[in-house]
Design a protein that fits this description.
Serine Threonine Protein Phosphatase 5, Tetratricopeptide repeat; elongated; 487 residues; single chain
């Protein structure tokens, strides 16, 4: 009997313990969501975007109306390349957190990545209105104003950029990031050397600052000084190993130097860390194109377009690939699509102009470059190309001469521009001056075949013009009045 009672007591105790354990292990949904959220944020900080998406999606499923969870989910989706879903998550977060600036700031970042600067600037402006003393928002908004390519509002944006810089200097006196923005303003004004000088001074003052080395590298790359740009990007990577933005910039500079294998290595390293980086897929496609792996390049670039159909550089790369394959019509279609996605970007229009010129469609080429010059009126390379096209087409000769004189003033002896100048003079029927210029150039380069052909063309055009003029003089003018017939 005693044994039976002991067994009953033990059995009841076990049941009670199990019930208590079960009760203790049961976690409320809100707490479980918080745990998933913290794990997701931790994964984001480690750069593990896919795992972050998994955890944060679970958190949102348990707490659908938590704006913070949705915002971090959107950031993770963006980093994993799921742009459409990122937009939806961040937009929902904004609905739930209407008074906060952070969702607006992240939406601005997302639209920058999508190459939609107008929409990005709109979100940064709204964020700034909610938190006018937040220097990070002001920096982003100021950069948008600097880089805005909307010709109609260019001056307004530039004035806003200057105001932003002024306020930043008050909020963050001595902050090196302001120097970077000032250099960007100088670059947009066409004062390339001044911009680089300012950044070099900043590097001397803050040699361990990643942001300055990265900015200097980008400025050097924009000035086509790719060897120097690579050095700056490599220093930046040394300061922060594994920084994806620096790795991408370094890979793109390698591409410009035709260092395809180095570029491929960088882009693959980026994709190992974040497979959703569309920019890295495009860079890898370009690297494969350079090494002649056309099928791999095509599948890589098409994958990038599938991931983000509105990513302009992917369509630009596809156009280059079609050109390599000899499919000019497909190339033009892709380049037009890239141009229409961002009308202010110079690269698609310049590439189209080069193609049109090769096909003899000079008027179309001129139209593309004139639009580029509207957005970037100080672009010396575009003026150079336009001067050539005007001279070949025999139109806008005064403007062409103005551009030629600018180029000659900058570089001194420039055979290409001397040829263009001689052709302009020929088209203006100033044959003696055109011949004199050609002969002057031939004294320096007597074996230049293009100069010899141009000289022959000037002589032939002069001969034809003189012959035509003499025929006109020989024509009898019709007499007016009464004709008297004498017998």
């Amino acid at each position: 009997m005693l044994r039976r009672m002991i067994r009953v007591v033990v059995w009841i105790g076990c049941l009670s313990f199990a019930a208590c354990s079960l009760f203790e292990e049961e976690v409320p949904p809100e707490e479980e969501a918080r745990q998933f959220y913290e794990q997701g944020v931790n994964m984001l900080q480690k750069g593990e975007a896919k795992q972050a998406v998994e955890f944060l999606t679970k958190a949102v499923a348990l707490d659908k109306n938590n704006g913070e969870y949705l915002l971090r989910q959107g950031v993770a989706l963006q980093k994993s390349g799921q742009i459409g879903q990122a937009v939806m998550a961040m937009s929902r977060s904004l609905e739930l957190l209407p008074e906060q600036a952070e969702p607006l700031m992240h939406l601005g970042d997302l639209y920058v990545e999508m190459d939609k600067n107008k929409q990005a600037a709109g979100y940064f402006r709204k964020a700034f209105l909610k938190d006018q003393n937040n220097p990070e928002i002001l920096k982003k908004l100021t950069q948008m104003h600097i880089s805005m390519k909307d010709f109609a509002s260019a001056m307004k944006d530039f004035a806003s950029a200057r105001r932003g810089l002024k306020k930043l200097r008050l909020l963050l006196p001595g902050d090196v990031g302001i120097v970077v923005l000032q250099a960007n303003v100088l670059m947009e004004q066409g004062r390339t050397e001044d911009a680089q000088r300012k950044l070099q001074e900043a590097v001397a003052l803050a040699p361990d600052n990643l942001e300055v080395h990265l900015a200097l590298g980008r400025q050097l790359a924009a000035s086509h000084k790719f060897d120097a740009a690579v050095q700056e990007f490599e220093i930046a990577l040394g300061l922060r190993s594994g920084d994806l933005g620096t790795m991408l910039a370094l890979g793109e500079s390698y591409l410009k130097l035709n260092r395809a294998q180095d570029a491929e290595k960088q882009f693959r390293a980026v994709l190992e860390k974040d497979s959703g980086k569309v920019r890295a897929h495009v860079g890898l496609g370009r690297a494969l194109l350079l090494t002649g792996k056309l099928n791999d390049a095509m599948s890589t670039i098409e994958n990038a377009i599938t991931m983000n159909p509105r990513f302009m550089p992917a369509h630009l790369a596809l156009g280059e690939l079609y050109l390599r394959q000899g499919q000019e019509d497909d190339a033009i279609t892709s380049l037009k699509r890239a141009r229409d996605m961002n009308p202010g970007r110079a690269e698609p229009r310049i590439r189209l102009a080069q193609l049109y010129r090769g096909k003899g469609h000079l008027s179309d080429a001129i139209s593309e470059l004139e639009v580029v010059l509207m957005y970037r009126p100080k672009n010396s390379a575009v003026k150079r190309m336009l001067a050539m096209l005007y001279a070949e087409n025999g139109t806008s000769l005064s403007t062409a001469m103005e551009y030629v004189e600018e180029q000659l003033e900058q570089s001194g002896v420039d055979f290409e521009m001397l040829k263009v100048k001689a052709r302009i003079l020929m088209n203006k029927r100033r044959f003696d001056k055109a011949l004199g210029l050609a002969d002057e150039a031939l004294d320096i380069a007597p074996d230049d075949s293009e100069l010899l052909e141009l000289r022959a063309e000037i002589l032939d055009t002069r001969r034809k013009y003189k012959k035509k003029s003499s025929r006109k003089k020989k024509r009898k003018k019709k007499r007016s009045g009464i004709e008297i017939i004498r017998y």
